């Protein structure tokens, strides 16, 4: 009789612990929703960093980037430090011998459009950067991002990567 009593108490204790643990552990869907909410807050705050992982030149293949390249978006500035692979039509004017996309803009427009199936299109038009026409971004709800640069003196290039919070280290 005592052993049945002990087994019953053990069973009730394990059931209670399992139920309590299941209620406090976030589900995969909860984690995904939290990540999507965080990405939405970043996009709307206009204070985030795009970390480039792949370059997609107009005439070439998908190139994995092994160095740290980024595009910092702030309410008052746009700072680009990205490589360039492609054809330059005339002097780049960026003052860089490697023809990368490197500039700081403090005069630009920033327009967000929400997509019906999630994510956002962001159009940035710097007016104080020579040869830079438009920066088009597609940001998925999960933070995966494609950034396209339209440059008047070079062939177009795009980059794939992720968004990071300003406080997040690379």
UniProtKB/TrEMBL annotation:
Residues 1-22 form the signal peptide. Keywords: Signal. It holds the Pfam family DUF4251. This is DUF4251 domain-containing protein.
